[in-house]
Amino acid sequence: MRNSENSTYHIIIQYLGFRLHGWAKQTGLKTVHERIDKTIEFVLKHIDFKTMGSSRTDAMVSANESSFILTASLLQSKEHFLEELNVNLPPDIKALSINEVDSAYNPLNPDNEKTYLYLFSSGMKPHPFCASLLTSILEPLDLDTMTKGAELFEGEHDFFNYATKPSAKTKTLRSISNCTIIENTFYTASFFPDKTYALKVTAKGFLRNQVRLMMGQLFKLGKGELNLQEIEDSLKEKRDQPFREIAPGSGLILEKIG
Length: 258
Known about the structure:
It is built from five helices and ten strands; from the N terminus they run E-H-E-E-H-E-E-E-H-E-E-E-H-H-E. Strands 1, 2, 3, 4, 5, 6, 7, 8, 9 and 10 form a ten-stranded mixed sheet that branches. It is about 20% helix and about 30% strand. Strand 2 and strand 3 (about 60-70) form a beta hairpin. It folds into two domains: about 5-100, Pseudouridine synthase I, catalytic domain, N-terminal subdomain (Alpha-Beta Plaits, 2-Layer Sandwich), CATH 3.30.70; about 115-255, Pseudouridine synthase I, catalytic domain, C-terminal subdomain (Alpha-Beta Plaits). The protein is α+β, with helices and mostly antiparallel strands. Helix 1 (about 30-45) crosses helix 2 (about 80-90) and helix 3 runs antiparallel to helix 4.
């Protein structure tokens, strides 16, 4: 950054992740961060800026509310910049607001809670248009047992079994403040099945693929392939073999941060 008088802006965004390969930049792939930086470079007409995201979502995962920090020279008009950003961003990414913040602002604040939703249906194959937001399990699921299983995740537990390739330094002891399965009223469409459901989970931090691994085991629970005791035991002791049943990314939505 050449300009010593840069300003810092907090920009809230939302995006549909179905055709994107997650947040983080990857060579040769379309990602949220790559699309945003490319658009900002076009709008500002220079590359003298820096961005940092508040959350690293996986491929095909969507966000109703996420954000990033932009450090750049002072914008003449935040409102005009936001308008130009939206004009030039692809249709599956939208900037909602922009506010100037202190240069010390940390978008990765560990005190911020994150709420994720995982949308799903069961017992039928839905309209193909559902694929970008909804995971469909063709056989009927025991939703009562799945709800009891979701509640077992609440509180402080060692989620080692619910992380993809944790290293020796990974802190797998995490606390979940709320975890429940409810009927989905968050997102609806005329082509959705009559009843859809949502896993809603809130915590200050999640491990890599944690929510999708939790959902994967809840699907097995609903099919009768696991029981509640096995879910409870998985939060107390490390398994010899990691869980391999991971729910698809397209059903997961970062609903809210903070």
